[in-house]
Amino acid sequence: MNVVVDIYGGDYAPEEIIAGCIDAIRKNEGFDVVMVGKEDEIRTILKRYPIEEYLNRIQIVNASDVITNDDVPTVAIRNKKDSSLVVALDRAKSDDQCMGLVSAGSTGAVLTGAFLKIGRIKGIQRPALAPVLPTVNDKNVVLIDCGANVDCKANMLAQFALMGTAYAKSMLGVKSPRVGLLCNGTEDKKGNALCHETFALLKELPINFVGNMEAREILSGDYDVVVCDGFWGNVALKSIEGTVGTIMTMLKKEMMTSLRSKIAASMLKKNFKNLAKKIDYTKGGGAPFLGVEKVVIKSHGNSKACTICGSIMQVVNMYRSKLIENLKNELNAGVAAGSSQD
Amino acid sequence: MNVVVDIYGGDYAPEEIIAGCIDAIRKNEGFDVVMVGKEDEIRTILKRYPIEEYLNRIQIVNASDVITNDDVPTVAIRNKKDSSLVVALDRAKSDDQCMGLVSAGSTGAVLTGAFLKIGRIKGIQRPALAPVLPTVNDKNVVLIDCGANVDCKANMLAQFALMGTAYAKSMLGVKSPRVGLLCNGTEDKKGNALCHETFALLKELPINFVGNMEAREILSGDYDVVVCDGFWGNVALKSIEGTVGTIMTMLKKEMMTSLRSKIAASMLKKNFKNLAKKIDYTKGGGAPFLGVEKVVIKSHGNSKACTICGSIMQVVNMYRSKLIENLKNELNAGVAAGSSQD
Lengths: 342, 342
What we know:
2 copies of one chain form a homodimer. With 342 residues, chain A is α/β, with parallel strands linked by helices.
């Protein structure tokens, strides 16, 4: 079995992506890595590593072109047929031995490409991006959708709820995931038109829907899955990211105000590091793109080796946990309960 | 001149609201406070304070009923005619000497009440809630709308941009406020249908519109005004609030992990307090409800005395800065440039 990696996606491609692949196969067993990108460059970089014993677990597939953030996703996927991303997607689609794909490239291109090239699970209207965030009580919450789809319809959100539930069951080990609908208040009647319509659908699904919830509660640990339109989810996710950054900067500044605070801060170096690690959800891997026929992990654009390694292991774990089968089962249960399809 | 205060709105009403009123008149000159609520109770509480010299600056208006968070706003405003909020709104509307109103009561009731009782500025379709948040570089940003309106239309957002601009000019002293449109990306073509339509309108307005922006940048200091639908704004604001709370809790937990960290943390007590104060935007006062004919400040439900005092002084300062006139001028300039009206 293998994991396909887009070596030329991401701010630190190709060096850090390759380093991440090597990390993953050095530390873990039972899979190969298929590196997709400029073969000559990849071979040159690989020579820097003393990895003879692992070379039989590395395959290289040549792709001479690169999709950038400046490319229009749909156009790039159609026209840049020899880009690392498109070649990687084609390989993931056609290879029975492929567990899934990792890319740190343009989010739009990865999602569009996965949608067009790998294809949706039967019955899924729109696949969704579903990052897992750490909660205040050291648990996790799945935020679905976080930006793959804007202007969603209620039945799309209902499918997000089913996929999020399957994900939390399979990957987070939650028996009966508590699903909240992101809203501007907790009362049943709160929300905009899409909330109202979605609320009614979620109540009918065979999931543990616990009602409307406010963005303030996303990280509270009271929810395992938060369902939202991709636009709101993007606003929530990036508000959280921005606030983390802002507070850490303010904290650093505050620590520099006196000799006393500087000394105390130096005593806390390790603790601040722990904290930063805990709240940076991008360090451990990427966000799964749920609803396509293979496991696809979108790693953050600024991924370094350890994140890529984490993303590769996410693919391996999701494959081994039979995530895609579980998603299909959850969807079928939803359909049986009356969830609408396309 | 006077400021009308709803003494029975908020989690800590009436004690902390009264304490806040007293704080405000003790520390500042040039205005009276009109306390609206259960007169007997207010008089009993006032007796606890040695404030004889200030009594001539306190008026009490009796109102025997209270609107709670469980009330449906529109119904409560119509039916609870003798509630502290409705009586306060009526007084603010009819009193020429009234600079504005403060309430820490149910957000829905305060906004609905201000809309129905005080009335909109001519030409304004929907007033908007516009809290001011601290940025990472110790400046401020106005987030408009933050929850007064869901399912907005593009021309409503255009008016938010004009009101936000007027506010940043008058109250934050920014000469040419940089206005961003909250979006899921920075490129011109990013966003949902409402973003696209709004983008086109904002480009035509006589404001300093700098384009689409991501939620990650709200606190960056790169924007003075962030324009959004009230639903997204609510998601952004509460995501920020929730993240602040989460990080502070995680930080505290981390500080308790060893003797070393406990000692260091005790040395940093003052610094942590400074930080908490800087990032808690609700401490200094409330959020203005822009677009109605008087200054209305919605103070946070959990407001204690110092926040109520801050909210009262916001009313005084906004009145003295001629905020309402400036809003009207900005709107007229927008209309002249082709902004749509109702």
